[in-house]
Model the fold of this input.
Amino acid sequence: MNVNASFLSRVDVDAAIVDLDGTMVDTLGDFVAALRAMLADLGLPTVDAAAVGRMVGKGSEHLIHAVLHHVGAPDTRYPQAYARYQHHYLGINGRHATVYDGVIAGLQAMRERGWRLACLTNKPTAFARPLLAQKGLAGFFEVVFGGDAFERKKPDPLPLLKTCEALGTTPARTLMVGDSSNDAQAARAAGCPVVLVSYGYNHGQPVRQVDADAVVDSLTELTELADGATLG
Ligand SMILES: O=C(O)COP(=O)(O)O
Ligand SMILES: [Mg+2]
Done:
């Protein structure tokens, strides 16, 4: 269950930057529904959920290019596909999505420890904010940044550095909590410690192969590690 589980009891943490899709909310159903409606509008073949799960994580633009390629459609369909996807996603946002077990209690425990909290996702801000509000998560976060908030997205370190700046914290004391190699690579490059959850989307790859400080099965497990609990 744990990789270097003791590291959190040794690291001083002032803040956490928490990823959204695959970490706090299981949004695969939303992605699948919006993409299938988009493909139907374009007269293209449908996609299965497992394939979508391997393609999410790098923002809407990447996802749509990948899906068009997956169904054998030319990339010239991209502008129309993007417009239809935006339309459908905004319409169904949150309808096929559920908060993972342990998220609310985990975020509460982080706040009780005095950690400052930011949400940083590659999801467009216009999708992320209503989703957090709808799922009762918005109130935990001082700042929320989507994939369009900065010049570059995760795995680039820029969004993490900008989020630390917004929180007024140093990267070395700001924990990244995510579900994929995007989050881990961005954290390593920014100099943030990083913990990954075991249950999200990692481009179809085993999350334990990613270079991270720890892998946890829930956000409550993460806060137990931070309290120095012995797990293993
Ligand atoms: O929308 C995506 O591509 C994934 O977003 P995430 O950064 O919250 O995992
Ligand atoms: Mg994610």
Notes: The chain has two domains: 7-26+97-226, 28-92.
